[in-house]
């Protein structure tokens, strides 16, 4: 009887130990407020917390703003942290169009106007890099520092070479049946990214996979995700026009995972900016916040805290 009781207690303890891993996915500090803010013809789901100089965190594909929870908690100690879900993704509205990054850059500008933020740092990953670049390029006087993480910028630097990589098959995945092919199979589709772009797929946890797969299975979410990629041709044209106006002058940190973009991230940004610092996160693939959160947070913190 005693052995059975001990076994039951141990089982409960093991379950309790696993629960926080599920509960903490995308959980921001209790001090953060969650708001739905109208901007530029759509509505963005936004978390806002902390006080001090502003920092905007822009997520990438296969995730939502929830990816930034650990970084947001760190930065909120002395910054006002603003974390939207991009247009069409997560819990933001899903308008019929506007998935080119120039339009989404104006989503960010309108969001900052609504929050009465005049100047900000921008930290971005993946598709967030592209939205962030469009915002920064059009609103250079509003950006103090810019961090880009492990993804190319359409039309900038070695873009044409990047497009040839077979690993980036999803950039070209389209056609009338693409949504029907993945409907009800969102987890299978997304696992390809989480597995193939990780240095160690186990670091993108089962809890995180379930969390994001559920969000991407919401009505219209996959349609909006495909629209992000379908806009790349227009994005490249817009970015070339931005570049024609002159290179970015604010300090930029270009971060690549050792097993992913690595030092190429700095090569990309030096094609469009004059003050670029490159950094490679060791033993990491594309999913920097999941694979090496401490090193990634330290890199961002050191950069945004640097003297002007």
As a whole number of angstroms, the C-alpha radius of gyration is 19 Å
Spatial gap, N to C terminus: 67 Å
Summarize the amount of helix as a percent range. 40-55%
What's the CATH topology label? Rossmann fold
CATH top level is Alpha Beta
Overall pLDDT, averaged?
91
Outline type? globular
Strand content: 15-25%
What is the helix/strand order?
Answer: HEEEHEHEHEHHHHHHEHEHH
Strand order of the largest sheet: 1-2-4-3-5-6-7-8
- Tally of strands: 8
Low-pLDDT windows of residues: 1-23
Classify the secondary structure makeup into a structural class.
alpha/beta
Tally of discrete structural domains: 1
What would CATH call the homologous superfamily? Alpha/Beta hydrolase fold, catalytic domain
Word description of this protein:
The protein is α/β, with parallel strands linked by helices. The protein has a single domain (32-304), classed as 3-Layer(aba) Sandwich (Rossmann fold). Helices cover 43% and strands 16% of the residues. The chain has helices at 2-23, 69-75, 101-114, 127-138, 159-163, 178-182, 186-196, 206-216, 221-230, 232-244, 264-270, 288-291, 293-304, and strands at residues 33-39, 42-49, 54-58, 80-84, 120-125, 143-149, 252-257, 276-281. It has an eight-stranded mixed β-sheet with strand order 1-2-4-3-5-6-7-8, with helices on both faces. Strand 7 (252-257), helix 11 and strand 8 form a beta-alpha-beta unit. Helix 3 crosses helix 4 and helix 4 runs parallel beside helix 10. It is globular, with a radius of gyration of 19 Å. Mean pLDDT is 91; it is low at 1-23.
